[in-house]
Amino acid sequence: MYYIEPHIHMVSRVTDDYERIARMGCVAVSEPAFWAGFDRGSVDGFRDYFRQLTEFEPKRAGWSGIQHYTWLCINAKEAENVELSREVIKMIPEFINNKGVLGVGEIGLNKNTKNESIIFQEHVQLAMELDELILIHTPHLQDKLKGTRMIIDMLMSDRRVQPERVLIDHVEEHTVGLAKEEGFWCAMTLYPITKCTPSRAADIIEAYGDDRIMVNSAGDWGPSNPIAVPDFIQELRRRGHPESKIKKIVYDNPLEFFRQCKRFEFTPPDTLADNSEIAEPQKA
Amino acid sequence: MIAAAQSAPEVFEQTFLLTRAKILEIAATLDRLDRAESAESVRSDPRFRQIQQGLEILLSDGFHRAAQVQELFSDRYDPNWMKKYLTTGERPILSPSVPH
Questions:
Q1: Which of B45, B48, B12 is nearest to B30 (CA)?
Q2: What is the DSSP letter of A184?
């Protein structure tokens, strides 16, 4: 089955992983800007990162026939540095109209602090002014429920925010209802230990339905599994769910959300072989 | 909502050994704690009480045990947080790079 990986940090993965997910049926990835494992010291560090996301990663993905999309922001962890965050937010418009950029993300909260909240709202402000989609990171573990409520409070207090243009990510059993009730899109992250397993994600689908929801691996430099979405597909098949329902969650839903971006261009896999614009691998 | 595609007996057959293994893992972990030095200090750790409460939730009836366990291990939410955090002067500023 073809699928779309709506949240994966490929800058932290090897080229072999593009090849692996392509062989599993992945036709497109969406890569939000995130924390690099260390706090960057200047806005120029982010400028280089945004170039990597918008210039090099699409090329590297293309070597395996995968279409690459991305999101721009300063992540919640580094948002604690308000001065640097404002410099990065100011720079985002330089890159926002590049091919493959889907919007502002993944913004959100990490430890639910005051500074994180301020920078979150300034990102939302930018997204509203530029009419961009928003991708939201919710905190992990004990911070998640409180942080998700805080994020929804901030979004609902801004009348310009259209919930159907916002995706709240990393939802679990105790937060999926909060996001869906307010009309937001949401995503479950299949990640060892700290997030959802494929079987729990399948339980959530059975409990909350398959509208406005998707699944991702959030593969990054930590212990993570870039082929977690195929594991989820297999779990739903094992339970006897029809292929059409599974396809809706792993392919149709990401497309429906992404298509709200005015720049979004997607070549369906059946015609991919005819697309002469796919980059050739670079020779060493 | 999509109904569960399998019957309860089917689910039970497929998950029995896995569930048994997970219960055994928790039992062995608690045994390991008890036979280790300073076991009493762990028993007074608030997180140990959370573990005990989590096990009590597993024995309860209903369809929302997983959500209840998640809530048990969650920080408390203050509905007035925004007033405390985002006072006048700390509301978002307009980005000067964005044309108005």
A1: B48
A2: -
Segment A129-150 shows an average pLDDT of 97
pLDDT in tens, A244-267: 999 999 999 999 999 999 999 999
Chain B contacts in chain A segment 46-105 (CB below 8 A): 86, 89-93
Query: Which residue from A10, A2, A1, A4 is spatially nearest to A253, judged by alpha carbons?
Result: A4
> Are the Cβ atoms of B71 and A145 closer than 8 angstroms?
yes
SS (H, E, C) B34-72: HHCCCHHHHHCCHHHHHHHHHHHHHCCCCCCHHHHHHHH
Inform me whether the C-beta atom of residue B94 falls under 8 Å from chain A C-beta atoms: yes
Query: With an 8 Å Cβ cutoff, is A153 touching chain B?
Result: yes
Decide if B100 touches A, using CB distance below 8 A: yes
Query: Closest partner residue to A153 among B1, B6, B82, by Cβ?
Result: B82
Phi, psi for residue A72 in degrees, rounded to 5: -120, 140
At A133, phi and psi to the nearest 5? Answer: -70, 160
- Which pLDDT belongs to residue B100? 27
Q: Which domains does chain A have, with CATH numbers?
A: 3-264 (3.20.20.140)
| Cα torsion angle, A215, A221, A226, A231, sign | negative
Interface test with A, best of B74, B82, B91, B94 (most A CBs within 10 A): B74
Given a cut of 70, whether residue A37 has pLDDT beyond it is yes
Give this complex's ipTM: 0.87
